[in-house]
């Protein structure tokens, strides 16, 4: 249960920082910001797994650090904006 709560907190931080780094008009609330950060964290985790491999201690998926989570959230935000701009044009 604590892992889920930490995932939400890290998702909120990563999503908020990604939106701060990439300013613009995004009419998304806190829930979508959390989802943006969580998806970015998963993307960052997959990238870190592809580059450095898995940790041999538990052999499972390792979540990305905050830096890779923010980088992943920026990429997801960029993709979201591209899809959103195509649908409004």
Please outline the helices and strands.
Elements: H1 2-21, H2 30-52, H3 66-88
Q: Rounded to an integer, what's the Rg over CA atoms?
A: 14 Å
Helical content stands at: over 70%
Overall geometry comes to globular
Task: Give the ordered list of helices and strands.
Answer: HHH
What does this structure look like?
- With 89 residues, the chain is mainly α.
- It is built from three helices and no strands.
- It has helices at 2-21, 30-52, 66-88.
- The mean pLDDT is 77.
Could you give a quick summary of the protein structure above?
74% of the residues lie in helices and 0% in strands. By secondary structure, it is mostly helical.
Features:
89 residues, mainly alpha
